[in-house]
Protein backbone atom coordinates (compact mmCIF):
# COMPACT_ATOMS: atom_id res chain seq x y z
CA UNK A 1 0.00 0.00 0.00
CA UNK A 2 2.76 2.47 0.95
CA UNK A 3 4.77 1.65 -2.19
CA UNK A 4 1.74 2.36 -4.35
CA UNK A 5 1.42 5.85 -2.84
CA UNK A 6 5.07 6.57 -3.61
CA UNK A 7 4.71 5.22 -7.14
CA UNK A 8 1.60 7.35 -7.77
CA UNK A 9 3.25 10.49 -6.40
CA UNK A 10 5.95 10.21 -9.09
CA UNK A 11 3.30 10.70 -11.77
CA UNK A 12 1.08 13.32 -10.10
CA UNK A 13 1.61 17.06 -9.97
CA UNK A 14 2.08 18.11 -6.37
CA UNK A 15 0.11 21.38 -6.34
CA UNK A 16 1.33 23.54 -3.45
CA UNK A 17 -1.31 25.29 -1.36
CA UNK A 18 -1.05 29.09 -1.24
CA UNK A 19 -1.14 29.22 2.54
CA UNK A 20 1.79 26.79 2.84
CA UNK A 21 4.25 28.91 0.84
CA UNK A 22 5.49 32.22 2.33
CA UNK A 23 8.17 32.90 -0.32
CA UNK A 24 9.05 32.21 -3.96
CA UNK A 25 10.52 28.73 -4.41
CA UNK A 26 13.21 30.17 -6.69
CA UNK A 27 14.32 33.69 -5.70
CA UNK A 28 13.03 33.50 -2.09
CA UNK A 29 11.12 36.80 -2.39
CA UNK A 30 8.64 37.05 0.50
CA UNK A 31 5.01 37.21 -0.60
CA UNK A 32 2.85 40.03 0.74
CA UNK A 33 -0.44 38.69 -0.66
CA UNK A 34 -1.92 35.69 -2.48
CA UNK A 35 -2.07 37.74 -5.69
CA UNK A 36 1.74 37.60 -5.89
CA UNK A 37 1.76 33.78 -6.02
CA UNK A 38 1.79 31.87 -9.30
CA UNK A 39 1.83 28.11 -9.80
CA UNK A 40 4.14 26.49 -12.31
CA UNK A 41 1.83 24.54 -14.62
CA UNK A 42 4.31 21.67 -14.77
CA UNK A 43 5.66 21.06 -11.25
CA UNK A 44 2.87 22.75 -9.25
CA UNK A 45 5.22 24.77 -7.04
CA UNK A 46 4.57 28.42 -6.22
CA UNK A 47 6.76 31.23 -7.59
CA UNK A 48 6.66 35.00 -7.99
CA UNK A 49 5.66 36.56 -11.32
CA UNK A 50 9.28 37.07 -12.40
CA UNK A 51 10.13 33.41 -11.81
CA UNK A 52 7.14 32.17 -13.87
CA UNK A 53 7.61 34.51 -16.82
CA UNK A 54 8.41 31.71 -19.27
CA UNK A 55 5.89 29.59 -21.14
CA UNK A 56 5.81 26.26 -22.95
CA UNK A 57 3.21 25.24 -25.51
CA UNK A 58 1.33 22.08 -24.63
CA UNK A 59 -1.77 20.09 -25.41
CA UNK A 60 -3.51 19.44 -28.71
CA UNK A 61 -3.97 23.17 -29.38
CA UNK A 62 -0.41 24.01 -28.26
CA UNK A 63 -1.65 26.59 -25.77
CA UNK A 64 1.01 28.47 -23.76
CA UNK A 65 1.34 27.52 -20.09
CA UNK A 66 3.34 29.45 -17.47
CA UNK A 67 6.22 27.45 -16.03
CA UNK A 68 9.13 28.07 -13.69
CA UNK A 69 12.68 28.42 -15.03
CA UNK A 70 13.68 24.86 -14.12
CA UNK A 71 10.65 23.31 -15.82
CA UNK A 72 11.17 25.55 -18.85
CA UNK A 73 14.71 24.17 -19.17
CA UNK A 74 13.40 20.61 -18.88
CA UNK A 75 10.54 21.07 -21.35
CA UNK A 76 11.94 23.45 -23.98
CA UNK A 77 14.33 21.57 -26.23
CA UNK A 78 15.87 24.86 -27.44
CA UNK A 79 17.16 25.64 -23.92
CA UNK A 80 20.57 24.46 -22.70
CA UNK A 81 20.49 22.55 -19.39
CA UNK A 82 21.61 24.40 -16.25
CA UNK A 83 24.67 22.16 -15.99
CA UNK A 84 25.68 22.69 -19.62
CA UNK A 85 28.77 24.69 -20.49
CA UNK A 86 27.38 25.22 -23.99
CA UNK A 87 25.39 28.40 -24.77
CA UNK A 88 21.74 27.87 -25.83
CA UNK A 89 21.30 27.10 -29.52
CA UNK A 90 19.33 29.65 -31.51
CA UNK A 91 16.40 28.27 -33.51
CA UNK A 92 17.25 27.48 -37.14
From TrEMBL:
Keywords: Metal-binding, Zinc, Zinc-finger
Xref: Pfam families: FYVE (PF01363)
Coiled-coil features, chain-numbered ranges: none
Transmembrane segments: none
Domain FYVE-type residue range list: 18-76
Superkingdom, natural source: Eukaryota
SMART domains recorded: FYVE (SM00064)
Gene Ontology terms, MF aspect: GTPase activator activity; zinc ion binding
GO biological process: endocytosis
Keyword Metal-binding: yes
Protein name per Swiss-Prot or TrEMBL: FYVE-type domain-containing protein
Protein source organism: Oedothorax gibbosus
